[in-house]
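Q: Mind making up any chain with structure tokens?
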Amino acid sequence: MKVFELSKLEQFTSLSLSKDSDITGVFCCDLLSIAMGKAPAGSAWVTVMANVNTLAVASLTDVACIILAEGVTFDNTLIEKAKEEGIAVLKTDLPIFEAALLINNLL
């Protein structure tokens, strides 16, 4: 599944779309130091951590996209930074588990 396809589902809202990467799996983690070492490249990273360090970890790990769950969002400054860095970011009101399960079932 492509990030763009996921962004078109009613449960998700796109904040930043970059290259249309393939999503190859799902990764859930809110501890950035763990995510930095364990987030698989190509995964949809589902988290509630919405800060500049989230973008840094996404860039280091080459995840396909960040999914901000539970109604969490980036402020405008972070959205612009994500666009500048080419990091795809979507948000959802779904809890982390439900968002991850939905994405996993679509793969």
